[in-house]
Amino acid sequence: LTFTDEKEAKEFQIYVTPYADTQITKERFKLDEPSGVMKNPTDILVDGVRATMFFSTNSLTGESREVWFIHNGFLYEIVTEKANDVWLANIMKTWKFL
Known about the structure:
The chain is an alpha+beta fold and 98 residues long. It has helices spanning 26-32, 85-93, and strands spanning 2-5, 10-18, 39-46, 49-58, 62-71, 74-81. It is globular.
């Protein structure tokens, strides 16, 4: 899913996939983040769920801000451009699971 703020010309993407593990393995990280880059990982809570927020980079999209977490058997990966870091952090504070 992609969410866009057309007025501000910002967007973020949410990738969700079934995931049986309780932690994100190195193998899974490398599969979904081929660059293997996780800079400045920070533990946060997303509606009470433990998550990791970090910066990454790849040759196609450049530097990114990402938030990854597991909830109810699904792996969530939220990604935006690095410049949208504060914007995404504020959005993640409002995230609610229904």
